[in-house]
Amino acid sequence: MATLTEQLTRPAVRLRGLTRSFDQRTVLDGIDLDIPAGQFVALLGHSGSGKSTLLRAIAGLDHEVVGSGQLTAPERISVVFQDSRLLPWRRVLDNVLLGTDGTEKGRAALDEVGLKGRERAWPNELSGGEAQRAALARSLVREPELLLADEPFGALDALTRIKMHALLRELWERHRPSVLLVTHDVDEAIVLADRVLVLEEGRIGLDLAIEPPHPRSYRDPLLGE
Ligand code: ADP
Ligand code: MG
């Protein structure tokens, strides 16, 4: 049994010696990483450096990685990808609620991401940014301890991306999940995160604390006061 102190100080994510290879090629080469509960971490790295592989491992989506090292992650994890992965045959609210109950929670989540009034819209009636807002609402409604996001704004135009940055930071400040945001956008990493990691040659090559206060304010123009 863990002591109370251990429970309170235990990191949300703890990796030791995590390794993953594809056909003899080592992509993750013994990753050691602790993410304290509530921390907002950005993970940078060149295309092909293994960012998505690491995220999938932490999400529990990669069965091969099990046993390669030590991997501890919270039970309630939400994942957001570059495409919203909304089911086209379900209305927005039904997508958000999928597998959960509590319509009111779903409505509240949609309200929080600026999609009030769009509950009955079909996914193909949403813009790219709105679809990602819905994806964030779908992740929120599950009250995740850890939010994993794999280049969630990578397909959006620059202006929409800025609005999404404001929204994500605001949601994080309100709900305080641990966040691991994969991105190849250095500005995005520095603006949003409290800590920036760079994945290089299968290891965490750089681990930088970003000092508060952040250089931006984060009010989402689509949200009310
Ligand atoms: P990133 O997200 O940083 O762009 P990935 O984690 O997607 O990188 O991929 C890292 C490397 O692992 C790439 O060379 C990719 O081709 C390889 N890879 C990822 N998934 C698989 C897979 N399922 N089968 C074979 N190779 C893979
Ligand atoms: Mg990737």
Report on this structure:
- By secondary structure, this protein is of the alpha/beta class.
- The chain has a single domain (37-217), classed as P-loop containing nucleotide triphosphate hydrolases (Rossmann fold, 3-Layer(aba) Sandwich), CATH 3.40.50.
- It has helices at residues 4-9, 51-59, 92-97, 103-112, 128-140, 158-175, 186-192; strands at 13-22, 25-35, 40-44, 70-72, 77-80, 146-150, 178-182, 195-200, 203-209.
- The strands form two sheets. It has a six-stranded mixed beta sheet, sandwiched between helices. A three-stranded antiparallel beta sheet has the order 2-1-4, covered by helices on one side.
- A hairpin with a 2-residue loop joins β8 (195-200) and β9.
- α4 (103-112) packs across α5 (128-140).
- The chain starts with a helix and ends in a 16-residue tail after the last strand.
- It binds adenosine-5'-diphosphate and magnesium ion (MG).
- Residues 51-52, 150 line the site of magnesium ion.
- InterPro entries: AAA+_ATPase, ABC_transporter-like_ATP-bd, ABC_transporter-like_CS, ABC_transporter_ATP-bind, P-loop_NTPase.
- This is ABC transporter ATP-binding protein.
- Pfam families: ABC_tran.
